[in-house]
Each structure stands twice: as C-alpha cells, then as structure tokens.
Amino acid sequence: MTSSSTPGLARFNTLAADEAAAALHEVCASAKWGSLVLAHRPYAGTEALLSASDAAMAELSAQDLAEAMAGHPPIGRPKPGDPASAREQRGMAGASEELRAEMLELNLAYQERFGHVFLICATGATGEQMRDAVKARTGNSPEQEREIVRTELGKINRIRLTRLVQDSPEQGA
Predict the structure, then answer these.
(1) Residue 46 above 70 pLDDT?
(2) Is the per-residue pLDDT at 2 higher than 60?
(3) Nearest 5°: phi and psi at 139?
(4) For position 124, what pLDDT does the model report?
(5) CB-based contact 57:153 (threshold 8 Å)
(6) In whole angstroms, what is the distance from residue 35 CA to residue 37 CA?
(7) What is the largest CA-CA distance in the chain?
(8) 3-state helix, strand, coil in the chain (%, to 5)
(9) Does 47 score more than 70 pLDDT?
(10) What three-state secondary structure class fits 4?
C-alpha cells in the first residue's frame, strides 16, 4: 500500500533538513538526488516520495550516477556492518565458493570495462541470476550500461525509501 501516509513518512517529513539529508544519503549516495528529493518535502504519501525519487534519478548526470554507485559495494562483498547491504545481497549468502570466485572475477572484469562496480537491484535475486546479469551486461556499450545502472539504482532507491518510511524509529536501534 504505497499511496498512503505512514508514521515513518510523517517522521521523515518533519525531520530537520540535515537529518533528512543524512537519511536520504543512506538511501542513495548522490548528493544531487538527495537534494532534489529533499526539496519536495513534505510528501502526502509514499507514492509521491517514490515518484520524486524517480524524477530525481532521471535528472542525474553521469558524474551524479558515479557518485551514487560509489555508495554500493561489489556484489558478493556487502559492506561489513551494513544490514541493508547484507539484506540486499542475500542471494549471494549461500552461494558456493565457485560462484563467489566467479562473481569476483566477473565484478573485476566489469569494473575494468566500465570504471565502476557492477550495480544491480539484487533484492530477491539469486547468485546465479546476478552472475548471468553481469555476464550479459559486460557486452553493453558504456551508454547502454549507464542507463541500465540508472534504472537499477532507481529500483534500489524505491526499495530503500519504502523501507525508510515504513520503519518505526525503534526498529534497528
């Protein structure tokens, strides 16, 4: 039910600007994305927030996208101590050593080709699905890949924003 307001959204709407900016930075490392989303507060409902996120993603330059990607660890190596990273990459948690080694190799090849980490909305994806995606996407042009990354970041941001405005302040504390 993404159209209604939640206690988490009401809390987000009333946070001090610096606190809201910090919360948005946890969602997406792009300063431009965060400032664009922040500028439209208060949000009447979660869907309005998600729409603002999508609109902000569409405005990001290649440099803004690079800044956003810098906040994401490689697939198969979630940030230590980061529950969001671990949760999103759960599909790699039970992967065989062989698949983990293959992903490391594929991640490195992708990063060498494109100059940034392989980014995919990993929530709900298996290790094999992520492997197949990196294999398929390595053949893309940089321009094609930048737009795929924009789409994947948008999906990740939507999931993280939804979680942000649904969580109660006690959760995760």
Answers:
(1) yes
(2) no
(3) -80, -5
(4) 87
(5) yes
(6) 5
(7) 48
(8) 65, 0, 35
(9) yes
(10) coil
- Identity (one letter) of the amino acid at 73? P
Q: Which of the four pLDDT bands, split at 50, 70 and 90, describes residue 117?
A: confident
Q: Which residues contact 120 (CB under 8 A, 6 or more apart)?
A: 75, 130, 133, 134, 152
User: Over 90: is that where the pLDDT of 132 sits?
Assistant: yes
Residue 112 structure tokens: 């060498």
The model's confidence at residue 81, banded by pLDDT at 50, 70 and 90, is low
Of 107, 108, 109, the residue nearest 122 (C-alpha): 107
Place of tokens 């994305």: 33
Structural Rg of the chain based on CA atoms: 17
**Helices 31-38 & 17-27 angle (0-180, nearest 10):** 130
Token couple for 99: 């698949």
